[in-house]
Design a protein that fits this description.
By secondary structure, the chain is of the alpha+beta class. Helix content is 31%, strand content 20%.
Length: 447
């Protein structure tokens, strides 16, 4: 039964709308053995589809990736089978474009084949020195360009350590002159989402949304008793129960009249506050499964006795944050940089009377993923380097932003409405992976 259900999940072709927020089950969370098999299928599909296109687009003949156990290049780590928790000893992966229909050859210069996707190309009994074997493979193939992962701007493309670079150049000798370093291959590999990825992403996202909704409900929160840290650790325990990855520590914070202490990126969130009726709650929640990450922020209002809805000013603040999301995603264009998108979206938001703070980023293999930064909460002018990288098709995004808005019911106090929701850009249009929050969660829930 479980295997059949998981096969159905893998067959999903398009993202679906968000699950009913009152449905607190975590859908589509299969057993670990099935997850590992599915993750390996996703990896093989990505290697087959993404690498040849990237290498030819970047005009690179060979790509050499070097990692040592517990000192993995982030790109190498993303290419390991689900049952490999790290590289083994020194693991060297080589891609070589044989041209035309011959495709890209994949090799592992390691003591073991790397799953069934990188056959081993080294027999230590015949050639004890691993670096000599690497040099022999390179000479035999005679590539004009050899890519390595060194980057001044992007940590995810900067995985070749100094010691391994020194040994690689020494082994290659005159061929080291053919080494090239740029961000395109590493970031392109990490940021590109395949149809197979997107077929399962909605289910992963739906599981995260279901957990957030349960945490922001009377099932977990009792006003006057429950603290913000109680909810944080409930989320951690729930992730552990479902054997999902928590790639960041959740946070839960409060805004209330005359105490604007929560949900503000540049303020310290108190270690623990008791949640009271009338509070505006903010949750930042991260999860991962099948090598894909989610990053979500949602908000909730704790009803006072006799209330059936949030104050109109808080409802208007949520609408302002949704309007900002609409502005940002409507301006996505393939080829423009993160800084260019930031400038266009801020100009439009300000003209609409909004007070925007935009700090969105790519998501996928990593939570704060490969791709351009679209602003930073502490700097809305645009960022050199990380903001100058282009937006590419077939990429996933965390649309993370905040709208500042005065709330009349709180004496005109300015409140931060911070939301984060994940979506997909196919090169022409932007769509939410599993819907978005458009109204505040209410505690307790209303019929």
């Amino acid at each position: 039964m479980r295997r059949a259900a998981f096969a159905l999940m893998l067959a999903i072709a398009t993202p679906t709308l968000a699950a009913d927020p009152t449905d607190f089950a975590a859908p589509g969370v299969p057993p670990l053995r099935d997850r590992a098999a599915a993750q390996d299928r996703l990896l093989k599909a990505r290697l087959d589809q993404v690498i040849p296109r990237l290498m030819r687009a970047q005009k690179v003949d060979m790509w050499i990736l070097v990692a040592r156990e517990y000192a993995e290049d982030p790109v190498v780590r993303s290419m390991l089978p689900a049952t490999w928790m790290s590289a083994r000893r020194r693991t060297v992966l080589i891609f070589f474009d044989r041209g035309g229909d011959k495709g890209v050859e994949r090799l592992a210069v390691a003591r073991y084949p790397v799953g069934d996707v990188f056959p081993t190309a080294w027999e230590p009994e015949k050639q004890p020195d691993q670096w000599t074997r690497i040099a022999d493979l390179v000479r035999d193939r005679n590539p004009a360009t050899i890519a390595i992962n060194i980057s001044d701007s992007f940590a995810l493309a900067d995985g070749l350590t100094v010691s391994q670079y020194r040994q690689l150049t020494k082994a290659l000798g005159p061929l080291a002159d053919r080494l090239v370093s740029h961000d395109g291959l590493a970031l392109g590999w990490l940021e590109t989402r395949t149809p197979q990825d997107m077929a399962v992403y909605a289910t992963i996202m739906r599981s995260a949304h279901a957990m957030i909704a349960q945490g922001l409900s009377e099932a977990v929160i009792t006003p006057g008793v429950t603290t913000t840290q109680d909810v944080v650790w409930w989320y951690r325990e729930r992730l552990a129960d479902l054997r999902l990855e928590n790639w960041c520590q959740p946070s839960v914070s409060i805004q209330r009249p005359n105490q604007n202490s929560g949900a503000v990126a540049n303020q310290t969130i108190p270690e623990a506050q008791v949640i009271e009726a009338g509070d505006l709650l903010h949750v930042d929640f991260c999860a991962g499964m099948l090598g894909l990450k989610t990053d979500t922020q949602q908000m909730a209002y704790v009803l006072k006795p006799g209330e059936t809805s949030a104050p109109a000013g808080l409802i208007a603040g949520m609408a302002a944050a949704n309007q900002m999301q609409d502005i940002l995603i409507s301006n996505f264009r393939a080829g423009q940089t993160g800084n260019q998108l930031l400038a266009v979206a801020r100009k439009e938001a300000l003209a609409a009377g909004l007070k925007p703070i935009i700090y969105s980023h790519a998501i996928g293999t990593h939570g704060h993923g490969a791709g351009p930064w679209i602003g930073a909460w502490e700097d809305q002018r645009g960022l050199p380097g990380v903001g100058d990288y282009p937006i590419n098709p077939d990429t996933a995004w965390s649309i993370e932003l905040a709208a500042m808005k005065a709330v009349p019911e709180w004496g005109g106090q300015e409140v931060r409405f911070a939301l984060e929701v994940d979506g997909f850009f196919d090169g022409k249009k932007f769509s939410w992976i599993d819907g978005r929050q458009t109204s505040l969660h209410l505690i307790p829930r209303r019929p």
